[in-house]
Amino acid sequence: MAWILIVFLILLGGLIAPFGDLLGTKIGKSRFSIFKLRPKKTATIVTVITGGFISSISIGLLILVSEEFRQRLFVDIPFLQKTLDESKKALIPLQEEREKLEDKIIKKEKELNLLKNSISEFRRGNIVIKRGQTLFIAEVSSSSNIKLDLAKIYNEADKFVRRIVVPSNKEAKNILLWKPSDITKIETVAAQGGNWILSIKSATNVLRGDNYVFVSPDLLENKFIVKKGEVIKSSILGKSDFNRKSINLKIKSLLRETRDEIKSKGSQANEIKTSGNFVKKITDFLKDNQNVKFKLEVVSLRDSKTAEPIVVEINILKVLP
User: I need a labelling partner for 67 at 20 to 30 A (CA). Which of 36, 50, 267, 291 fits?
Assistant: First the structure.
């Protein structure tokens, strides 16, 4: 059936095409004109219309005779278009996910490059200062000459860093470098009043013998982190914890939680100092109290501000039923 249809369309086109050409020639010779056009253009238009007529008849015959063509034209094509539209909509979240993944990849590549640089530095020499390490801490008072205070702090910090980075070079000076914009910001904030702590941290890894150390100064409020007698952290233990291993684990956990707590409040202390033989005190307590719940408390032994050390003791108490 398909072959017959194709042969028929070829014959039909072959018959109508000469007719259209002949019609165009006749119109051209007869000087016929439509829409006030020149006869030559009129003949061209007639030829074009004849070609369109051939295409229309061809499509009409295909629709009339071929069920498969009707199926493709009126069912399959709209279905494919709808499917295409739905696919485009489905691609939108996938494209967003792809962009997120690309951002993550870029971020990971940056982290990898930083790691490679650190490894290269380790291979090239001895790192004496790590990126982000606190190098110097000093108080800054708004009641004094801020510029003079900053100059004194710089000199002391520079001297301290030189002893670490270039200990053998007695002539080295001013190896500490910070951004003028950072200092301007610090001066502006400190001038508003209050007591402050200037924390100077290294901006990069530093090798022994480097000529310069880039730092990042940060102004922090000099406030009370803990007060004397304050219970910073506590934990209740039961009968199952009446052994040395459990007690040691609980003490370590409490001290770790205490460190996290004071850091969250803004303390710049690097470690917590413990006072008293609390291990003996806890052991003696457990000998006399075997069938009660008890509580461990981490108690501050002094008032401590932002840059001051945190000194604590660990007390053990009965928990009343």
Answer: 50
- Residue where one domain finishes, among candidates 180, 206, 222: 222
**Tokens of residue 182, six digits:** 């950072």
One domain, residues 193 and 230: no
Cα separation, 200 vs 156, whole angstroms: 11
Q: What b-and-e string marks burial along 259-289, b requiring 16 or more CB atoms within 10 Å of the CB?
A: bebbeeeebbbeebebeeebeeebeeebeee
Six-digit token string for 34: 């439509």
Give the mean pLDDT of 103-131. 75
E strand or H helix at 207: strand 206-207
- Give the helix ranges, DSSP H, for the chain: 2-29, 39-65, 67-71, 77-124, 146-165, 180-190, 244-264, 278-288
Verdict on whether the full-model pTM lies above 0.70 = no
Burial 113-143 (b: 16+ CB within 10 A, else e): eeeeeeeebeeeeebbbebeeebbbbebeee
Integer Cα distance of 89 and 76 in angstroms:
20
Domain stops at, among 65, 88, 119: 65
For residues 182 and 232, membership in a common domain is answered with no
DSSP-assigned states of every residue in 137-149: EEEEETTS-HHHH
Q: What one-character DSSP code corresponds to residue 174?
A: -
Between 231 and 245, the more confident residue is 231
Which amino acid type is present at position 25?
T
On whether the CB atoms of residues 319 and 293 are closer than 8 A, the answer is: yes
Predicted confidence band at 143 (pLDDT cuts at 50, 70, 90)?
A: low
- Does residue 39 lie within any of the structural domains? yes
Strand partners, 314: 298
Domain that holds residue 35: 2-65
The count of domains in the chain is 3
